């Protein structure tokens, strides 16, 4: 019973390149959340998606960042024209369908992005 | 004032000690409370979840919530070196339609053999 999977686990990009982070939720889960953890900072919410829908993107930076969760395949967090300040650990979490406030989120191992 | 305050530590205790970890929050809209454990360079792992004031016990772990004081705690009994990790408190608004977790910064715990 595989948990939340994220790839790549480590990603190095030069300034100005694009970064694509992928997340496959737990089997049977259809809700995906993305969080960012900056060095010495706590986890910060970025975006909440269900299949083919963005439900809440209140934590996403206004520019360069986008997320999708297509009908088939993993959820993708895309960062265009990366800058050094984007260097962080990006975590994906998933929860079951018909999710309620009481449903818990299960986290993946994270993708560590380094921007040179 | 941050929504969730958590002392980052580090906290160092001898093996077998009782550990107390705490968070305070400012917004009474938070109704659901979790504790996650995060080992170095790993993803957070859910330890405890609770929504009502009072205590909830699971093995060596006890989660305590005091909504009137906006204060939550995690107690670890008979601490083990394998408990050495960063402990994150997390909270969810009720009825918001989006169940984003708001985290404390985490407390780094070391249990010394």
Task: Walk me through the structure.
The complex is a heterodimer of chains A (116) and B (113). With 116 residues, chain A is mainly β. Chain A contains no helices and eleven strands. The radius of gyration of chain A is 13 Å and the shape is globular. Chain A starts with a strand and ends with a strand. With 113 residues, chain B is mainly β. In chain B, a hairpin with a 4-residue loop joins strand 7 and strand 8. Chain B is globular, with a radius of gyration of 14 Å. Chain B starts with a strand and ends with a strand. The interface between A and B is medium-sized, with 30 and 31 residues.
List the main descriptive attributes of the protein structure presented here.
heterodimer, A: 116 residues, mainly beta, seven-stranded mixed β-sheet, 11 strands, B: 113 residues, six-stranded mixed β-sheet, five-stranded antiparallel β-sheet, 0% helix, globular
Briefly say what this structure is.
The complex is a heterodimer of chains A (116) and B (113). With 116 residues, chain A is mainly beta.
Which two chains have the most extensive interface, and how many residues on each? A-B, 30 and 31 residues
Annotation, overall tally of beta strands of chain A: 11
Overall residue-averaged pLDDT value of chain A: 91
Apparent shape of chain A: globular
Ranges of chain A where pLDDT stays below 50 over 5 or more residues in a row are none
Lay out the secondary structure:
The complex is a heterodimer of chains A (116) and B (113).
Chain A: E1 5-7, E2 10-13, E3 19-24, E4 31-37, E5 43-50, E6 53-56, E7 65-68, E8 75-79, E9 88-95, E10 106-107, E11 111-115
Parallel strand pairs in A: 2-11
Antiparallel strand pairs in A: 1-3, 3-8, 4-5, 4-9, 5-6, 7-8, 9-10, 9-11
Chain B: E1 4-6, E2 11-14, E3 19-25, E4 30-38, E5 45-50, E6 54-58, E7 61-66, E8 71-76, E9 85-93, E10 102-103, E11 107-112
Parallel strand pairs in B: 2-11
Antiparallel strand pairs in B: 1-3, 3-8, 4-5, 4-9, 6-7, 7-8, 9-10, 9-11
């Amino acid at each position: 019973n595989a948990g939340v999977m994220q790839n790549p686990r480590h990603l190095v990009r030069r300034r100005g390149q694009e970064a694509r982070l992928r997340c496959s939720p737990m089997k049977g889960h259809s809700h995906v959340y993305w969080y960012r953890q900056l060095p010495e900072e706590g986890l910060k919410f970025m975006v909440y998606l269900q299949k083919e829908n963005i439900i809440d993107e209140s934590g996403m930076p206004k520019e360069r960042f986008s997320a999708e969760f297509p009908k088939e395949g993993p959820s993708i967090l895309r960062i265009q024209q990366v800058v050094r300040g984007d260097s962080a650990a990006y975590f994906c979490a998933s929860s079951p369908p018909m999710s309620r406030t009481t449903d818990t989120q299960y986290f993946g191992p994270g993708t560590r992005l380094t921007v040179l | 004032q941050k929504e969730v305050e958590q002392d980052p530590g580090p906290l160092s205790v001898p093996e077998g000690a009782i550990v107390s970890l705490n968070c305070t929050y400012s917004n009474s809209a938070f109704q659901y409370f979790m504790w996650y454990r995060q080992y170095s360079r790993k993803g957070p792992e859910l330890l405890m979840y609770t929504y009502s004031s009072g205590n909830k016990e699971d093995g060596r772990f006890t989660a305590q919530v005091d909504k009137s004081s906006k204060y939550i705690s995690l107690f670890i009994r008979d601490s083990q070196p394998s408990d050495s990790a960063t402990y994150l408190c997390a909270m969810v608004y009720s009825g918001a339609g989006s169940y984003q977790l708001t985290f404390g910064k985490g407390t780094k715990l070391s249990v010394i053999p």
